[in-house]
Amino acid sequence: MENNYDPNNQEWDEKSQQYLIKDLKQQVVVSKNKAKDNLSICKTCDKFDSKWRICNECGCQMDLKNIVYRLINKSPCPLDKW
Ligand code: SF4
């Protein structure tokens, strides 16, 4: 099996920069209230399965999705409700 690893290839390093969190604690503080608001909107949405807390539009488990949102401030509503 051929090894194609190139230690000088910066492609992944450059991509990862988009997702690096410079100040994780600050990011969580900024996104925490917005994530809470997002879940409030989900609870009024007809796509929200309240038993399993799943969005039937995107299939996401909303508690996990909101954790992701808090950490990287990305994870949009598929219907642009938030
Ligand atoms: S469509 Fe948007 S608002 Fe509705 S449950 Fe899914 S993520 Fe929440």
Please supply descriptive tags for the structure shown above.
82 residues; mainly alpha; two-stranded antiparallel ribbon; elongated; binds iron/sulfur cluster
Would you give an account of this structure?
- This protein is mainly alpha-helical.
- It has a domain at 23-72.
- Helices cover 49% and strands 5% of the residues.
- It contains 3 helices and 2 strands; from the N terminus they run ααββα.
- The protein has helices spanning 11-19, 24-43, 62-72; strands spanning 48-49, 54-55.
- A two-stranded antiparallel sheet has the order 1-2.
- The radius of gyration is 17 Å and the shape is elongated.
- It starts with 10 loop residues before the first helix and ends in a 10-residue tail after the last helix.
- The mean pLDDT is 80.
- Residues 41-42, 45, 47-48, 55, 57-58, 77-79, 81 line the site of iron/sulfur cluster.
Assign an overall shape: elongated
Q: What profile does the largest beta sheet have? A: 2 strands, antiparallel
Strand order of the largest sheet: 1-2
What is the N-to-C order of secondary-structure elements (H for helix, E for strand)?
HHEEH
**Fraction in helix:** 40-55%
Percent strand = under 5%
- Classify the oligomer: single chain
Number of strands: 2
Average pLDDT reading = 80
Q: Which radius of gyration do the C-alpha atoms yield?
A: 17 Å
**How many helices in DSSP terms?**
3
Q: What structural category characterises the helix and strand content?
A: mainly alpha
Q: What distance lies between the first and last C-alpha atoms, to the nearest angstrom? A: 47 Å
| Unique ligands | iron/sulfur cluster
Low-confidence regions: none
